[in-house]
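The methods section describes the discrete structure representation at length, but only in general terms. What matters is that the chain and its backbone geometry are given together, residue for residue. For illustration, here is how one protein appears when written out as sequence plus structure tokens:
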Amino acid sequence: MDALRATGIRWTRERAALAAVVCLTVGITGGWLIRGLQPAAGAVPGTSSPAGTQTSTAAPQAPDAERMKLTADAQAAPLLEQLKSDPKNAELLINIGNLYYDAKQYPLAVDFYGRALDIKPSEASVRTDRGTAYWYMGNADLALSEFDKALQAVPDNPNTLFNRGLVRWQGKHDGAGALADWKRLLATDPNYLEKDKVQQMMREVTDRTAAK
């Protein structure tokens, strides 16, 4: 897994456990969107829909979704209490957004990330996660808008380039745009930890384009 620059946000044991539930639920779909705010070593990022589709990952079965929501609510409760006396605390807002993101409660994650970005608009990693949440909600255009803004703040953010390329490919059928993002990623970060995945997707895009 790629480890980006330190963000000052550390996973709790409970959050890591929640992420494991998410990964077991959706990991078999084979998608690869990468988190902007990276978890600790050993955790697994969220997944996108399989290549060639336009929709986000299928929701987990209701009991799992309900359990994850309840777990996230319980974990977020003390942070929300702190937020009452410190409503402009961007780190609190980001951490709450992360909890709901990991629980696949993407509209809530988008809301808390947005409130954090109102305070710190140049947080590229938060924008990347917000864009990824929009993608999982089925909105490729809003996802790309967030990725574009993230790249304005940090032009060569590798995870943002990875994700924008994937959404361009899967969501907009823009193979040329996807290839441009991934070539830029590998040119600026040749040791990118997910390099094999990038190269595999580049081959798939090239093969599909040639087959048309």
Summary: The domain at 13-39+61-158 is CATH 1.25.40.10 (Serine Threonine Protein Phosphatase 5, Tetratricopeptide repeat). The CA atoms of residues 90 and 118 lie 9 Å apart.
